[in-house]
Amino acid sequence: MKELVIKDLHVSVEDKEILKGVSLTVGEGETHALMGPNGNGKSTLLAAIMGNPKYTVTSGSITYDGKDLLSMPVNERSIAGVFLAMQYPQEIPGVTNSDFLRAAMNVRRENPVSLFTFIKSMEKTIDDLQMKEDLAHRFLNEGFSGGEKKRNEVVQMEMLKPSLSMLDEIDSGLDVDAMHIVAGAVNKLQKETNMSMIIVSHYDRFFELIEPSKTHVLVDGKIVLEGDGELARKIDREGYDWIYKEYDLAPAQKEEAKRPVSIGTCAVRTVTTGK
Fold first, then answer.
1. What are φ and ψ of residue 39, in 5° steps?
2. Shortest CA distance to 43 belongs to which of 269, 259, 232?
3. Please, where are the H alpha helices in the chain?
4. Is residue 20 within 8 Å of 221, Cβ to Cβ?
């Protein structure tokens, strides 16, 4: 049984501690909601699990399926079944979606996927996400709307069939119809593969479509409250003030908004851009 186990994880960015002792266990087939105010460590946790080099793990451990993830580079974590759908998917000019995905699929296989099988799978996935038919031939996320980029992340997830998927605000930028399409595809894939999920979202409407088995609230780099799907609904109704008062807490000072550098959701190779 594949299980993600995080113990007393401390993570820093540029010498500033963001995560301050996070412990979390995600069992096979479980869906965990990760909630909390902006700037309190949710995206940092997902990035640390995936292996983004910007984030330094100063202590603690992360294991998946009994393997030490912290000892693995990003591509090995991806091959082990870990997938991150980015909050800000990066554009990669000159690389088509089909080339990117076929390469990502092949690094996970002993024998390369046949062109016929790949095309059929790609066509089905594009249809499932109701994307434009020319998606396979378009450069990765180039010229895509925000909603198209998010749906394209789910296209990648459906093609790669990871055993652990992390969705970082995949619902932001989606209209109501697109949210239903994405949630339907995610639910279908989980039913078919029994994948585990960690989902970051601020909105209960998304968790109404993808029901979490557990909900965790992250404040100032620590998990301060845990519950089931009802906790997500209560936060949607009442916000976080009741948590601050009941547990005598204060959120971390909101950080300046930064777009994280993509580490490649498929982890074929790391893409670095200059600014």
1. 75, 20
2. 259
3. 42-50, 74-79, 97-106, 115-128, 146-160, 176-193, 204-209, 229-238, 241-246
4. yes
Mean pLDDT (the chain) is: 89
Q: What is the pLDDT of residues 214-225, one digit of tens each?
A: 999 999 999 999
Q: Which residues contact 31 (CB under 8 A, 6 or more apart)?
A: 190, 196, 197, 199, 210, 211, 212, 213, 214
Q: Who wins on pLDDT, 237 or 258?
A: 237
Q: Which bin fits 220, alpha (ψ -120 to 50), beta or left (φ > 0)?
A: left
> What is the C-alpha to C-alpha distance for residues 150 and 40, in angstroms, rounded to an integer?
23
Pairing relationship of beta strands 196-200 and 67-68 according to DSSP bridges:
unpaired
pLDDT of 248 reads 85
d(CA 140, CA 111): 25
Q: 169: left (phi > 0), else alpha (psi -120 to 50), else beta? A: left
Packing angle between helix 97-106 and helix 146-160, nearest 10 degrees? 30
- Does position 103 have pLDDT exceeding 50, yes or no? yes
pLDDT band at 253 (very low <50, low <70, confident <90, very high): low
Side chain identity at residue 81, one-letter code? G
**pTM (2 d.p.):** 0.88
Q: Is 243 exposed, middle or buried (0-12, 13-18, 19+ CB in 10 A)?
A: buried
Residue with tokens 């994280």: 260
The CATH number that applies at residue 63 is 3.40.50.300
Residue partners of 40: CB distance under 8 A and separation at least 6: 218, 219, 220, 221, 251, 252
Candidate from 85-94, 214-223, 242-251 with smallest mean pLDDT: 242-251
Give the domain extent around 46.
Answer: 4-246
Residue 251 lies inside a defined structural domain of this protein: no
Residue 55 lies in a domain: yes
- Provide the domain count of the chain: 1
